[in-house]
Design brief:
Elements lengths: L16 H5 L35 E7 L8 E3 L2 E8 L2 E8 L5 E8 L20 E3 L2 E5 L5 E5 L5 E4 L16 E3 L2 E4 L8 E4 L5 E4 L10 E5 L2 E7 L3 E5 L6 E6 L10 E3 L2 E5 L5 E9 L2 E10 L10 E3 L2 E6 L5 E6 L5 E4 L8 E6 L2 E6 L3 E6 L6 E7 L10 E3 L2 E5 L3 E6 L3
Antiparallel strand pairs: 1-32, 2-3, 3-4, 4-5, 6-7, 7-8, 8-9, 10-11, 11-12, 12-13, 14-15, 15-16, 16-17, 18-19, 19-20, 20-21, 22-23, 23-24, 24-25, 26-27, 27-28, 28-29, 30-31, 31-32
Length: 409
Amino acid sequence: MKTYRAGQFSILIFITTAALATGQQGSSLDYTQWRGAQRDGAASGFYEPKAWPDALTRLWKVGVGEGYATPLVVGDTVYTFTRRDGDEVVTALNARTGAERWRSAYAAPYTPSKPTVAHGSGPKATPLYHDDKLFTLGITGVVTSFDARTGARIWQTRPPAEPPFYSAASSPAAHQRLVFAHPGNYGPLTAFDADTGTTRWTTNGDGLYASPIVVEIEGVRQVVSVLQDSMIGVSPDEGSLLWRYPWKALGGSTTPLVHGDTIVLSGLDMGMTAIKPSRRDGVWTTETLWTTNAVSAFLSNPVIVDGTIYGLSHRASGQYFALDAGTGQVLWLGPPRQATNTAVVKSGHLLFLLNDDGELIVARASRSAFEPIKRYVVADSATWAQPAISGNRIFVKDAAALTLWTVSN
């Protein structure tokens, strides 16, 4: 096993004893899946310092390979999913030191299509940590399960005859003993038995790039996912269709964003729309609550803080915005030409905006204007992956490395 170390460092990481001493799922500091523990873009257990430092403290930097998958943090372990030497690789690192604990790899031959060459051959879907297992969706649509304690491969689906033209980028989700993904070449939403990989059910309709979410609407648990021609809500246990909303965003769609019983979605040149699924006499229907064309999210997934949607619109060459989640009213638009992509994370009334050029902006969540607090440079190469914020630790994945930054209270 090859171990990477970042050298000596002189300060301690300020995190809770629970996160250091245990590896069990459920710690308030665990960052277990795409967009955080609740899949809503929230940091795990961050506390704002009394005064923001002029610079963040770098504790270590480790080469882990290429790809856009968000690192996961569980207890005192951080997991990465990357490409190295033609393999797709899951690596477990000591969160305090960056030292490698185990590495598990499988061959993943892949030649990117011409439109995707600039974004490389690394996996783009973030893994899922669930019941001491890791579940990944590789760039060719292969779903794999690993033992999170040892790295042993438990099961894996077969690669499709033809890989997805724009690569697979939909991160798995879970409910009880089922794992949900869009496998293969933009395959339909599929439920796998978490222990065996057996297919329990599939839906009709090909997938896209958005990741499914598991939510409760009107007291009914359901899996919500964006397809190539619609958004659907299905029963997690049987896969039966509850409702379908026409939505044809072939240029790409954000992960569905939930506000109460309302679902907000956006896509390339699609504006932003809020819908409300509801049922009467056992029959589900969907209603469009509002639509705005003032902003349109594409690669960047927004967050909701106190009834306000914050994000980056791809219009105006990258423009931060705030919308009222209840009405769609534009509250403010920031200056143009800010970023090609921004990974947005929320914590209380704070926003962390990691731009693709390695700049991290800390801003106040304000309904009146864009209010940046501090700006930090956290990488010297492109940062397309969502950061994992666990306590006052900020794990940043750049083109080929993972760096741990801390904020002292």
